[in-house]
Each structure stands twice: as structure tokens, then as C-alpha cells.
Amino acid sequence: MNKERIEREISNIEIPTEELFASIHKGIEKGRKEKRRRQITSLKAFGAVSSVAASVLLASGLVFAPVSSVLAAVPFIGSFYEQHNMRIGQELEKSKLITEINQVATDKGVQATLTSAYYDGTVIGVTFKVAGEAVSEKTIKNAGPEAGYTVHVFDGVEQEQWLSSSTGLTETEDGYTTAIEFRNPNADLTETEKLPITFTSIAGVQGNWNFSVPLLQIPLETIAVEGESGTANKDYALSLKSVSKGQATTLLSYDITLPSGRENDEIRLSVFDNEGNHLSKNHAEVLKEENNKETVEKEIRELFSSKISDTADHLVIHPEIIKKEAGSKPIKMETIKVNLTN
């Protein structure tokens, strides 16, 4: 068979284009999922409290290195939040609600750059880029803390502690990046306009890298709601007060009643909107607790790292009692329907 005939026969072969591209797409998605799974293992339980990795302590008397601020926007890797399974940052980036920053601090030959920040619900997220001859995979591994650095927050209140989680230092083409999420513990979320952050070690290098993170909280739409659930004798009870809708988060404010001596028990919520979307749980803060002779009263603000659909008109809440004792099973309480329209 000559060359011309071979080429003619090949050109006459019908290629199933749709199936071909579908297979390519499936392969790409599979590769992304595998890559994401590998990266998530380095995430160190994002949404949980970091123990040593990025311990956030409030302390005074720190000596800070000089900081230079540049107003020009800094391009940030668009897939960073997706790669590290950061739901809030990922959603805010889609809506173009991430503040790009270029604030640089240099000490002991290590340059740290604050590249972006966001503040939605109770979550404050920041991203940093780190570079310098002293920073390498080896020095990060030998640095001690799992994240490869130690970071502190100081807001003028001694020993008050903010909860945080971190991705750790992740290698890129031009250095290393990291993302940290802090949870604002204050009942009044509008007070924090700047977040002072100081790194005291990076990749085993001791120093001071100080940043003043400008914060613009995304306005929350707060809806006063009513809804109650409880056991027959009301020793366990739940009373909803409000729902606050963010661009990537949802806040539920509610009160719970527990029997005296059972203050460690929980009333756990599973929340869906009327379109069937499940709100992902993030963290619940106890803002106030009062122990009476017969009951324990708690005021709770719970954060969900999911936004409520713009077309949803009500929430369906399934509460259940979680008793802190061996062998106990969750006890379902009456379902609550919460209207989101006034």
C-alpha cells in the first residue's frame, strides 16, 4: 500500500468527536481530583484549630521589621483556593470579592508578601508569598511547626486567642505560598478593620515580619427568624433568632437549653435550603453561657462555609441531641422550617 493511499484511508476514518472529547475531559477531571487529594493531605484539617502549625497567640511587646506597602494589584494564582479545598476563598474569588494586596516585609534575608485578604461572616482569610535564599524545602521541613512558620495576632487584648487553620508553605515556581484563615471570636463583627499579623519564624529563620491587613467585611444580610424545637419535657430546647447571609458563608444565631450538669452535651444542626442544598458546617462559637439550678443556657453563633442560594425562600433545619457519654446515639428533635422572606 503506497503512502498516498495510506493517507487517504486515514482521512476517511470517522472519529467519534463527542466521545473523544468526553474521554479527554473525564481524564482531566480525574487528574485534578487526584492532584487535589494529594494537596488536601497537606492542608492539616482546614476548618479545625491548628495546634502548633500556625498557633495564633495574642501577645504584646513585639519588635517589628519595616513594612513597605505598594498599591498596585498583585496577580494571584487563580486555582490556589481550589487546589487547597478552600471553599470560602474559592466562592469569593468567583464573585471577585477578594482584595488584592502587595504588602512586603523583609527580615534576615526572607521576604514575605501579603497578597490577598477577605472577610466574610466570621472568617478572615489571608494569603502570603515567601521567597529568599534561606527558604527551601529542606529548611521548611526542618523548621519545626508543621506549617513551616509561626504567626501571631495582637489586637490589644492580652491572651485572647483567635482560632486559625493553615495550608502550610506550598512550593510554586517563584517561591512558596500559604493561606491562613482566622475566625473572629468577637460578637460584634464590624469592629475589625485591620488585622495585625506577625510572623516570628519562617522556614526555621527567626525574625519579625509584621503586616497590617486591611479588612473590608462583606455586608451581611441579617434576617430575624423564629423557630423552636425541643424534647417533650423541654429539658433540651432550641430557639432560632436570626440568619445572616454572606457571599460565601451563612451565620445562624440561636439559643439552646440543656439540663443542669449536661453542659457538655450538644444540639447539632443539619441545614438544607428548600432547593435541597446542604450547608457545610464550619464552626460554632458559644458567645454566652449561663448555668442555672435546673438548666444551662447557651447563646450560639454557628458558621457554615456555604452561601444560601439566591433563589431559596426557606431553610429546613434538622436538630439532634448529642450526649457526651459512651454508647449514646443521636436523638432527633422536631424539624424546623425557617422562612427567609420578610
Architecture overview:
The protein has 342 residues and is mainly β. It contains 5 helices and 19 strands. It has 2 domains: 67-214, Sandwich (Immunoglobulin-like), CATH 2.60.40; 221-339, Sandwich (Immunoglobulin-like), CATH 2.60.40.1640. Strands 1, 2, 3, 4, 6, 7 and 8 form a 7-stranded antiparallel beta sheet that branches. The chain has a 5-stranded antiparallel beta sheet with strand order 11-12-13-16-15, with no helix packed on it. The protein starts with a helix and ends with a strand. Mean pLDDT is 78; it is low at 14-26 and 32-77.
What does the secondary structure layout of this molecule look like, with pairings?
Elements: H1 3-11, H2 17-40, E1 67-70, H3 80-83, H4 87-94, E2 99-107, E3 110-120, E4 123-131, H5 137-141, E5 149-153, E6 163-166, E7 170-172, E8 175-183, E9 194-202, E10 205-214, E11 221-230, E12 237-245, E13 250-259, E14 266-273, E15 281-291, E16 295-304, E17 314-322, E18 331-332, E19 336-339
Please name the defining characteristics of this protein:
342 residues; single chain; 2 domains; 19 strands; 5 helices; mainly beta; 43% strand; five-stranded antiparallel β-sheet; Immunoglobulin-like
Number of domains: 2
What integer is the average pLDDT?
A: 78
Note the overall shape.
elongated
CATH class label of the largest domain: Mainly Beta
Q: In the CATH classification, which architecture of the largest domain applies?
A: Sandwich
Global Rg: 25 Å
Proportion of residues in helical segments: 10-25%
Strand segment count? 19
What composes the largest sheet? 7 strands, antiparallel
Distance between the termini: 78 Å
Question: What's the helix count?
Answer: 5
Percent of sequence in beta strands: 35-45%
Protein name: DUF4179 domain-containing protein
Keywords: Membrane, Transmembrane, Transmembrane helix
InterPro entries: DUF4179 (IPR025436)
Pfam families: DUF4179 (PF13786)
